[in-house]
Amino acid sequence: MMHMTFYWGNQVTILFDGWTTSSWISYSLSLLACFLVSTFYQYLEDKRVRFKLVSAAKASNPPPKPQIEDPLLQQQGDGKTAGGSKWSAARFAGAALFGLNSGIGYMLMLAVMSFNGGVFVAIVLGLAVGYLVFRSGDEDVATLVVDNPCACS
């Protein structure tokens, strides 16, 4: 039976039937894995945003300022963007990184939905440590706000 409220204990199923813990050792290793994956999520998000900024800087000097006031009213033009043509390799790479990071983010969300308190704490701590290490020094915060509409970052 799946828990519908937070509980504390070392017996938890995370994501798959095969990922079940029954001892404190397996539970601790699972919490460590959740912590590392959530830290890796922040690392990938940092790399994706930096990749996008670098590709935009190479395509146009200087890079255009983000329009925070009206992001939905930006003109579409002729299909060209700051990253080059509409179907450039840089845009495909950025989309692949976004897809990978989104998949990891949703897997973390599903792991939290195990309702185990330890899993929740491990993931939140991993996201916080990853943010501190990889993303807290971001200079261009406006790009991050406009760029990532996901609530999971």
From TrEMBL:
Signal peptide: none annotated. It is found in: Membrane. It comes from Castanea mollissima. Keywords: Copper, Copper transport, Ion transport, Membrane, Transmembrane, Transmembrane helix, Transport. The keyword Glycoprotein does not apply. One of its GO terms (cellular component) is plasma membrane. Residues 59-82 are annotated as: Disordered. The lineage of its organism: Eukaryota, Viridiplantae, Streptophyta, Embryophyta, Tracheophyta. InterPro entries: Cop_transporter. This is Copper transport protein. Belongs to the copper transporter (Ctr) (TC 1.A.56) family. SLC31A subfamily.
